[in-house]
Structure formats: C-alpha cells, structure tokens
Design goal:
Elements lengths: L1 H11 L5 H55 L7 E4 L3 E16 L5 E9 L7 E7 L9 E11 L9 E3 L2 E3 L3 E5 L14 E14 L5 E7 L6 E7 L7 E6 L14 E14 L7 E12 L3
Antiparallel strand pairs: 1-2, 2-3, 2-9, 3-8, 4-5, 4-9, 5-8, 6-7, 9-10, 10-11, 12-13, 13-14
C-alpha cells in the first residue's frame, strides 16, 4: 500500500520527459534559425542599400561636374577642343575678373574683383568683352592666348579709377595678341580665363575604372570619382547633338550633350544564391551648351 502511494505521488510531480525536451529543443532551434536568417537578410539588404547610395552619390558628383563644364562651354566659340565617345577635351573656366586698366603700349589688362586661378601657359586662354562702338551690333567676345601674368607693381598698368577712387589692380595679365586687336576693350569689361582640361575614364592601379581629368599638360590622371563601369559597358558615354537635334561629330556644331554614366560600388554585397557582387546604377543627363 505504501508503494502505491509513493508511485502516485511521483506521477503528480511536474516535469518533462525526454521526448518533450527534444520537441522543445527542435522548436527553439527552428525559431533561432528563422531569426538568424531574418537578420542575415536584413544585413544583406542594408549593405546593398549602402553600396547603392555610394554609387548614386558618385554618379551625381560626376554628372554635376561634367554638366557644369558643358554649360560653361561654347562650341561655336571653340571651347570644345576634341570630342569623343568616352572622353572630352575642352576649355574650362578657371578665373574671372573685371578690366579696370589697360597698358598704354602693350596688350596688358589690369584686373579687379578677380576670382579663381590664373596661369600663363600654352594651355591657357582668355576671353574679354569688346564693346567697340556705341551700338551693340559690333559687340563681341575676343579670344586670345595668355602670354603672361604680373604683379600690379610690375605690370605697367596704371591704377584703376573706380568712381574717382584710385586703386591698384589685383592682377595684370598679358594677352598673346597685338595691342590693336583689343582696341575695343573698355574699362569695366568682363574677363574670363580658361585652361584646357581632359575628362575621361582611366584604369587605376586597383583594377577599377574611374572618372579622371588631366589639367593642362599634365601627363597623369587626377582621380575624381568612381568607380565606374568599363568604357565598353558605358561607364562614361557622351553623345553630341547639333541645333536641329541630330547627332554630330563636329565639335563646332555641338549644342547639346547626353552624359551617360554607369557606376559600380566599391565594395561587394553577398547574395543568397551566389558569391558577392558589385552594385550598379545608371544616370543619364542632357545638357545644353552656352550659345
């Protein structure tokens, strides 16, 4: 009788059998595995979005830079030196100012309110506005090479006269042209200085393609942004159109340019069914040139 009471007491005690423990353990493993897969998927999605954001930032930077250069350029004025499908050589605005004084016997201009960089090499040129007569029919921009630049004390240009106040010019530039050629330049004329710049794709030492530029006579590329796809995969593609909207290969007839960019992420993102891959995106922009 005592043994039966003890057995009934043990049956009434709480606990789990081995089978129940195995079932609970299996369920727990399945829940943890599901949570783990969810976290892995979320991390993969975050990495993909982060890399895509980097790609889009690089594309916007490249597009804004090239668009700015094209909007400042005039094909009719000779600003497009060479046009290619994957690269462009053009005259880029580097500095500007206002003519406030003119040398008496040499083609030198005193500049005031200057901004930017001023150089005097074979790759540099200038554009100054000639008012000529009192009418507007003979107004024009005169283009010339830059023969030199001087400090105000050594340029030989008299002090500028602004509303009766005499001030020294900030800079004196010499144009590569006879003095008579700029006879129509008046005090107050705007002055712009340019430098030849080559934009294009180049293959860096890391094996990736980048947008780069060569300023003036530079022999090596300056890295700007990227990485981009290879030229054969439209990493950078340029299409040129004339005033009628037809494609053209004549640099003097270009009025609009399509800028096509295809970027790649610097890092790779793992995929669920394969190895890590780069993220890609494309940006296309049409820009109108200055008249």
């Amino acid at each position: 009788m005592t043994g039966q009471v003890q057995k009934a007491s043990r049956l009434r005690e709480g606990g789990f059998t081995v089978v129940e423990l195995l079932v609970y353990l299996l369920v727990a493993v399945m829940v943890v595995a599901a949570i783990y897969n969810l976290l892995i998927g979320q991390n993969r999605l975050y990495m993909k979005q982060r890399e895509l954001q980097d790609v889009r930032t690089s594309l916007r930077a490249a597009a804004n830079l090239l668009a700015f250069e094209f909007r400042q350029a005039s094909a009719a004025g000779g600003d497009l030196d060479s046009i290619g499908t994957f690269d462009i050589i053009l005259r880029s605005v580097q500095g500007n100012g206002v003519v406030c004084g003119i040398h008496n016997s040499a083609p030198r201009l005193g500049l005031y309110a200057t901004g930017g960089d001023f150089y005097a090499t074979t790759d540099d040129s200038a554009m100054v506005f000639e008012a000529n007569g009192s009418g507007t029919g003979d107004d024009a921009w005169f283009v010339s090479g830059v023969a030199g630049k001087y400090d105000p004390s050594s340029g030989g240009v008299p002090s500028c006269q602004w509303s009766g106040v005499s001030v020294a010019p900030e800079l004196v530039v010499a144009l590569d042209t006879p003095l008579v050629a700029i006879a129509g330049v008046k005090v107050g004329a705007p002055y712009r200085q340019f430098r030849k710049i080559h934009y294009g794709l180049y293959l860096d030492a890391d094996g990736r393609w980048w947008l780069g530029r060569k300023v003036g006579a530079a022999g090596s590329w300056e890295k700007l942004t990227g990485p981009l796809s290879a030229p054969s995969d439209s990493g950078l593609a340029l299409r040129y159109y004339d005033a009628s909207g037809a494609t053209t290969a004549d640099a003097t007839l270009v009025r609009m340019v399509d800028i096509i960019l295809r970027g790649e992420s610097y890092g790779k993102v793992p995929t669920a069914d394969g190895g890590p891959v780069v993220q890609e995106d494309t940006l296309t922009l049409r820009v109108s040139l200055r008249g």
